Amino acid sequence: MLKLIAQLLGVVVIAALVVAIWPGAALEESGAVAATAVPIVAPSSPATQLRPAQSAAGDGFGQAIAVDGVTAVIGAPQASDGRGAVTVFSLQNGRWQETAHLTASDGAPGHTFGQSVAISGQTILVGASGHNAAYLFEQANGRWQQTAKLLPGSAQDFHFGRSVALAGDTAVVGAPYRYIQGEMVSTGSVAVFTRQGESWPQQTRLTSGQSGGRVGSDLFGWAVAAQGNIIAVGAHLQDKVYLYESANGQWRETAVLPGDRGGQFGYSLALAPQSLLVGAPATDAQATRGGTAVLFMRQTGGNWAETARFAPEGLRPGSRFGWSVALSGDVAVSGMRESEGQRDVEESGGTFAFRIANGRTAQSVALYAPNPAPFEHMGTAVAASTDAIFAGAPGPESAPGTVYIFKD
Q1: Which CATH superfamily is domain 2-350+363-407 in?
Q2: Which is deepest, 65, 87, 169, 176, by most CB within 10 Å?
Q3: What φ, ψ does residue 81 adopt, rounded to 5°?
Q4: Domain segments of the chain: what residues?
């Protein structure tokens, strides 16, 4: 991945005709001097554009992306009248090849299977919030098969499957809404399931309060992330991220991280063993309300400290930088779904990759579609592996959607 960023940054030398729209990377940091800005340019074209063999206009392919090693899982929640579908790609001989097309065993119009996806080893988790469910698939003899259907423990939890995360034998499913006295409110919960043999019983239900998540309107569970024995939950209407850790089979809240009021801090999350990246796409960074992303590093003793806050210099109003985020090694990625891109194309979107050194941004590069279309929304979802960056562009209803892969 470091080669990727160095290579893309080097385009400014070998392609003099490319004009950098963004003159540099501005970094707002806590307790430190910002890193020196570096040139930001867009590569001439992405390495690969992925689309499934089965696709149609309005599928929303690229709405959700998850990557683990040489396997990529991509959701198309609007396929087949909103039944939804997920396509699995595998890296074979240097090329990403479609290897599976997944659907729910009981899929029906409006279920939005594929709205959220996660993968860990030989297990895939797919959210279908339109059906208030999540589905588990496991690979055996080279084939992916549905092995479980997860449901909320409380009938009042709603939009269950809006977000999902996997960490080994732990599955995490967010339900950011709740029915209370016949009214749907923006007060959510998160269900944690643990594999036991061939079943996945619910282990616990997390909320932002003591009485069923009753902390005003917070959308607790809009975003979730999991790594090892840590779970992160975003509640962006309250601009908070909650952190939980398990010990002896019990999950306990260990930290609550606050963000700038009104910035939608916690809208997106990415968690690595010692770092957490939080998207805040409505933050008033540089007086543009273009969004930002905040990096936290775990300190000795277990506390989490903000080490960097960054957004591209010259970010235009309403770009929604931080709509999606991803982490892989020392590379952080953030999508800006509603950016006009480098060619002033309305909501064509874009993505930025950042190299992190000592908890701070050292380099950055802009990634755009080679032929952007209005409302393509590149950066709706992002993912990163050791040598590639994935950016989803689900597009307008007239297009099936695309995933761009920028790689070494």
Answers
A1: Integrin alpha, N-terminal (2.130.10.130)
A2: 176
A3: 60, 35
A4: 2-350+363-407
pLDDT tens column, 23-34: 233 333 333 323
pLDDT digits (tens, 9 = 90+) for 46-90: 668 999 999 999 999 999 999 999 999 999 999 999 999 999 999
Give residue 44's region: left, alpha or beta (phi > 0; psi -120 to 50): alpha
Task: Please name the amino acid found at residue 108.
Answer: A
Tokens found for residue 127 = 């959210």
Q: d(Cα 99, Cα 368) in Å, to the nearest integer? A: 27
